[in-house]
Amino acid sequence: MNFRQPNFSVTTTLFLVQLAVAAAVSATIVLFDRAERRQQALATAREMLDLTVTNLQLQVAALVDPVDSVVKSSRYWPRISDQPTASGHPARRFMIEFLGDHPQIASAFLGYDDGDYFQIAELVDVAPPLRHGAPPETVFSEDVVLRDAAGEVRSLTRFLDRHGGTLATRTDIHDGFDPRERPWYVAADATPGVARTEVYRFEGTDEPGISVSRRFDGGVMGADVAIAHLCQFLDATPQAKEGLVAIVHADGRLLARSTGTLAANAVLTAADQARLRELVARGLAEGTLPSSVVEIAGAPWVLRVAPVALGAGVDENLLVAMPVRTIMAPIDQVARRTGLVSVLIVAASIPLIWLLARLMTGPLLRLAAATERIQRFDLEEPPVRMSRIEEIRRLQEAVRAMRENLRTFALYVPKALVQQLIESGVTPRPGGERRDVTLLFMDLENFTPMSSRLSPEEVMTRMTSYFEGATRTLLDHEATVDKYIGDAVMAFWNAPNPSVDHVARACRAALAVIATVGPETDRWAETGGPPLRTRIGLHCGEAIVGNVGSSDRMNYTALGATVNFAARLEKLNRQLGTTILVSAEVVARAGNGFDFQPAGAHRMEGFDDPIEVFELVGERRPAIPASPTTGLIAGPG
User: Fold this and answer.
1) Looking at 61-187, which runs of residues are DSSP E strands?
2) SS3 of 118, please?
3) Mean pLDDT of the chain
4) Which among 35, 174, 303, 547 could bridge 321 via Cys, Cβ 3.0 to 4.6 Å?
5) Where does the pLDDT of residue 497 fall: very low under 50, low under 70, confident under 90, or very high at 90 and above?
6) Beta carbons within 8 Å of 635's beta carbon, 6+ residues apart
7) What pTM did the predictor assign?
8) How many helical (H) and strand (E) elements, i.e. helices and strands, does the chain have?
């Protein structure tokens, strides 16, 4: 059988050849474009990882450098070498501000060479089982560990609100905790400057983390950075969503890692972990490891390793990895070029941005420090160089005006009260609370006859000098000066600031006031006119203390029978010829450091029965027991 071969016309043949060539060219272009796009995508990914590493290095420095700086400068804190007591430590306010300004810090602490320990820890992000029964409003915990001469260890924990106010207190017996055995203490002892520990578990929370510490005269100050916070920080990196961002030790251990795709879905085999250790070792040897494609958990990843300082100048390794499948998702060519141009523009603008940031942030940081001082009611004005930027200059002038206004305001109300109101952030409203207080009333006897002989200007001059001495003496004894009533003064203790020994303070203040103003009134009497004498009444007990008045104008004062009785005692001095009359309650609570003279029982306005009163004679030096000869009695021992 003869088969006829197909015959093609020239037209058909050329068509088929051209079609084949076109198809081949098209296929080649498609394959080449795909390969080129892959290379471009990988190159873009490498550049993106390099930029990410640079940004993360800067961000880690911004996270850790403030910790190093504060720990380094802590040795210059006032009274940092003071031993902690059951009531706390003078550095408490600095440590609370330190934690409040740096949320990445889990706790700050002081360990002493004798084994005592003081710590302020932030509890907001601590899990409920590790809060040890802290009230819901707790922001900080204050831990004090003390060792007595017998070696017994006592522990006291206070739960504090965001302003450092005590919410609850717990006392324990510690049988094993010794700060001198903790890694941060050992590291600081072995290092002349700032030291950093390896990852270990914190006391109390059992949470892994690192500590930065430095030795001071008598002990070590340190701060904790929890690994969980570093993990949260790494999670905020865009590459953490689909990839891995980690801080790796030289031996390949993961110190902190993001919780994205790799952590959730991939399992690192022994070979993968060995590969990680190899990459880290190369990074340490070369100083940095360029981006490369590696197999991790059975899939190709683009990986970048670079050193990163993680406290006290100790370098760890920053690892950033992205799966190739994510990188190879469809990418628009224009978007890639736009992104690259944007990166170049940002890179070229870094010097200018840095310079402008320095010019802007310098005055703003100083303004922030000034407002913080004002918040603490520190109204002394340091020298300030005015900014050339109009808006910042206006802000500086506003802060200066605010400081001056507060100075003026402080002349009319107790400074301690103003400071408490500013720190609380609460708008004052009428109302009060029941408080145990000690009241003082003082009056100038024969003021009216004296003032009738003098010009108003001379009276004002004399009383200004008189009140200046009396007020300064009262404030030196931590009194709250309530008001001036003509020639009289009302003051009290234990409000708004608490004072355990407020009765004794009031007694000392009364004696000091007489010693201060007595010589001045004696000089006035020598110029002619009636004799002048300062009379004082003291009484202690419960009173209503708070803001009295209207929403438009208020006065922080004390009200109640205790106040009235103190005023009656002051007036009784005229009848008895005494100088300082006190109640039996004052005698009972003043302690054994004062001498009192019985002044008999007397009826007073507003009280049905005669009431025993006493004259405060002076402080005991030395203690004198009661005797019929002297007629003096001492406060109870």
Assistant:
1) 107-112, 117-122, 140-147, 153-160, 166-173
2) strand
3) 77
4) 303
5) confident
6) 587, 588, 589, 590, 591, 592, 593, 594, 596
7) 0.45
8) 15, 23
In b/e form, how buried is each residue of 312-322, taking b as 16+ CB within 10 angstroms?
beeebbbbbbb
CA-CA distances (angstroms) from residue 215 to 90, 142, 177, 505? 18, 21, 19, 38
- Can you name the residues that pair with 534 across neighbouring β-strands? 444
**Residue percentage of the chain with pLDDT more than 90:** 24
The encoded tokens of residue 345 equal: 């523009």
Provide the 3-class DSSP secondary structure of residue 95: helix
Q: Which amino acid is at 330?
A: P
DSSP-H helix ranges across 266-332: 270-286, 324-327
Q: What is the pLDDT averaged over residues 511-535?
A: 87
For residue 448, give the DSSP letter.
Answer: H
Q: At what angle do helices 333-375 and 390-410 cross, to 10 degrees?
A: 20
Whether 496 and 417 have beta carbons less than 8 Å apart is answered as yes
Model confidence over 567-577: pLDDT tens digits? 999 999 999 99
Contacts of 245 (CB under 8 A, 6+ apart): 56, 234, 235, 237, 239, 257, 258, 260, 318, 319, 320, 321
Rounded Cα distance, 590 and 623, in Å: 14
Cβ atoms 74, 216 nearer than 8 A: yes
Q: Within 10 Å of residue 195's Cβ, how many Cβ atoms?
A: 26
Does residue 18 register a pLDDT over 70? no
Average pLDDT over residues 310-324: 77
Residue 205, C-beta contacts closer than 8 angstroms, at least 6 positions apart? 106, 126, 130
DSSP 202: P
What tens digit of pLDDT does each residue of 243-266 get?
777 787 777 677 777 776 544 444
Measured CA to CA, the distance from residue 228 to residue 199 in angstroms comes to 12
Which amino acid, 337?
A: R
Q: Where are the alpha helices (DSSP H) in 376-440?
A: 390-410, 415-424
Q: Which residue in this structure is represented by tokens 């952590």?
A: 263
Distances from the Cα of 621 to the Cα of 274, 468, 617, angstroms: 79, 29, 12
* CA 319 to mean position of chain CA atoms: 33
- Dist CA 465 CA 521 (whole Å): 10
- Rounded to the nearest 10 degrees, the angle between the axes of helix 456-476 and helix 502-526 is 150
Q: Tell me if the bond preceding 129 is cis, omega within 30° of 0.
A: no
275-291 pLDDT tens trace: 666 655 555 555 555 67
Angle between helix 10-73 and 227-235 (nearest 10): 150
* Identity of the amino acid at 174: H
512-539 average pLDDT score? 88
Q: What is the CA radius of gyration of the chain?
A: 38
Taking each helix axis as running N to C, give the angle between helix 333-375 and helix 10-73, from 0 to 180 degrees, rounded to the nearest 10. 10
543 vs 281 pLDDT, higher one: 543
Select the more confidently predicted residue: 592 or 351.
592
Interhelix angle 333-375/415-424, nearest 10 degrees: 160
DSSP 238: G
Q: Per residue in 213-223, pLDDT tens?
A: 999 999 999 99
289 near 282, Cβ under 8 Å?
yes
d(CA 123, CA 127): 8
DSSP codes joined into one string, 48-73: HHHHHHHHHHHHHHHHHHHHHHHHHH
Residues 6+ apart with CB under 8 A from 152: 173
